[in-house]
């Protein structure tokens, strides 16, 4: 049956455009052709008209459709509103680059059918070997907490371009360097690195946006910073960050536990997964290293042959700077991890492969699972849910765990003051009977089809439950939610 649709006429640069008002069509369309259609027609009819007038007319129409004004630069790319001084062009364009900022793809994430794609492990030593001699960094403000240091995006891209131009001979079949002892990324390692160098948010099957710092990661850090005595809360537990990218949540937790070593000899394990090996080496590990920087012995910050006063080389943690990555610094980082009983584990590849890896070790259950900005594609939701469910329960069967948990969830709902969900941040993770799973996401991802409510409905349909921990309404709405099975 053909769906009825009303239309509305709007004037753009002297031209009458008939637009559909059907909201479902509006939100699911690919906006780039629409934007360029407006721009090209207005330029053709009246060259003296500015691009701003075209944009304003489009936004007035969208405002009538949706009941709210959507800000420039946050609509089509997954951008968010940080201070411009902190952005460094990392989070996308401004109003002046509106038309050029539209994404070039509609779909995102692993494609269907749900074929199992590999997920590989890589050691800390292997990633340390891939670090450059020097990195530049900048602080990013965290509401209610001290700033976090992160590697500059331009610096990571520069390293990527340099390595691409000077790379050793590559295997023509899968694109992997013949001198590498690591399995290639999906699509071939060099091929994946090539598209990362393109200024795109993501390219399905090759690059899933891990180089950029996304809003949901900052939101997770804000929520975690509100946990009292968080170092003791996570000590001795096992933590997984799925789709880690710049790994701000794990970096925050690592910095806290390194700052208060404690007397317990039980090990704290952080496991980080991203689609791209390049992301792990370019931003994930550098940001973890920066988080540990204040706690590494100062003499490790200097190469052995230098005799400068170590007080002169201590970095300012509230300002941008450069860090020389010497063998002494790498060794100091590893010794600090060992002293604080911390293990760092890394995986790269598809979630379907990670699911298979988790199934092969059913005895392992993570106490805390973090993921942010990973639900933008409905196609990849099932694999993500499998990672969250199996990682938190150690159970491979949805039916087995869903039936067992259904009664317990209803009981918890009826006894709010005793609910484990209401007290997720009070008991240490190692003492809790069920895992804490926190998801940071936007309410809706324009142009790519994903959204928070659709994800939560899928969780519930698969025997899970959810609750909202915190929400933000400025710009595109965002939430941190807790889910469980």
UniProtKB/TrEMBL annotation:
It is found in: Cytoplasm; Nucleus. The chain crosses the membrane at residues 12-33. One of its GO terms (cellular component) is cytoplasm. The keyword Transmembrane applies. The keyword Zinc-finger does not apply. GO terms for biological process: methylation. Residues 165-193 are annotated as: Disordered. Its EC number is 2.1.1.85. GO terms for molecular function: protein-L-histidine N-tele-methyltransferase activity. InterPro entries: Methyltransf_16, SAM-dependent_MTases_sf. Its main location: cytoplasm. Keywords: Cytoplasm, Membrane, Methyltransferase, Nucleus, S-adenosyl-L-methionine, Transferase, Transmembrane, Transmembrane helix. It comes from the Eukaryota. It is an enzyme of class 2 (transferase). PANTHER family: HEPATOCELLULAR CARCINOMA-ASSOCIATED ANTIGEN, HISTIDINE PROTEIN METHYLTRANSFERASE 1 HOMOLOG. Belongs to the methyltransferase superfamily. METTL18 family. This is protein-histidine N-methyltransferase. It comes from Kockovaella imperatae.
């Amino acid at each position: 049956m053909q769906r009825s649709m009303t239309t509305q006429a709007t004037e753009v640069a002297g031209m009458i455009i008939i637009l559909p008002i059907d909201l479902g069509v509006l939100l699911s369309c690919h906006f780039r052709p629409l934007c360029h259609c407006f721009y090209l027609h207005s330029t053709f009819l009246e060259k003296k008209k500015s691009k701003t007038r075209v944009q304003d007319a489009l936004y007035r129409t969208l405002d009538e459709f949706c009941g709210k004004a959507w800000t420039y630069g946050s609509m089509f790319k997954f951008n968010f509103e940080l201070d411009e001084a902190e952005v460094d062009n990392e989070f996308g364009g401004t109003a002046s680059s509106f038309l050029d900022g539209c994404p070039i793809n509609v779909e995102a994430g692993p494609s269907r059918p749900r074929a199992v794609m590999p997920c590989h492990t890589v050691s800390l030593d292997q990633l340390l070997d891939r670090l450059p001699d020097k990195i530049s960094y900048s602080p990013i403000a965290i509401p209610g907490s001290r700033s976090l240091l992160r590697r500059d995006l331009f610096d990571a891209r520069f390293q990527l371009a340099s390595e691409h131009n000077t790379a050793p001979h590559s295997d023509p079949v899968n694109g992997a360097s013949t001198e590498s002892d690591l399995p290639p990324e999906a699509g071939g390692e060099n091929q994946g690195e090539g598209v990362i160098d393109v200024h795109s948010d993501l390219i399905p099957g090759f690059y899933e946006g891990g180089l950029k710092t996304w809003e949901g990661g900052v939101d997770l850090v804000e929520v975690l910073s509100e946990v009292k005595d968080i170092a003791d809360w996570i000590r001795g537990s096992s933590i997984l960050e799925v789709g880690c990218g710049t790994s701000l949540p794990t970096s925050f937790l690592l910095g806290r536990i390194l700052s208060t070593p404690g007397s317990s000899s039980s090990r704290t394990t952080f496991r980080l997964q991203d689609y791209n090996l390049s992301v792990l080496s370019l931003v994930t590990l550098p940001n973890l290293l920066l988080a540990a920087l204040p706690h590494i012995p100062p003499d490790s910050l200097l190469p052995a042959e230098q005799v400068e006063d170590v007080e002169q080389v201590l970095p300012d943690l509230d300002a941008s700077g450069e860090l020389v990555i010497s063998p002494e610094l790498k060794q100091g980082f590893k010794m600090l991890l060992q002293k604080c009983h911390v293990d760092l584990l890394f995986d790269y590849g598809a979630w379907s492969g990670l699911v298979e890896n988790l199934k092969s070790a059913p005895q392992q259950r993570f106490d805390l699972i973090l993921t942010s900005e990973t639900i933008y594609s409905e196609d990849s939701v099932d694999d993500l849910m499998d990672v969250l469910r199996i990682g938190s329960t150690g159970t491979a069967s949805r039916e087995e765990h869903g039936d067992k948990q259904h009664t317990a969830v209803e009981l918890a709902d009826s006894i709010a003051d005793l609910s484990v969900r209401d007290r997720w941040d009070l008991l240490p993770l190692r003492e809790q009977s069920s895992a804490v799973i926190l998801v940071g996401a936007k309410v809706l991802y324009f142009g790519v089809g994903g959204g928070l409510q659709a994800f939560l409905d899928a969780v519930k349909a698969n025997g899970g439950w959810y609750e909202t921990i915190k929400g933000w309404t400025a710009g595109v709405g965002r939430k941190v939610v807790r889910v469980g099975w």
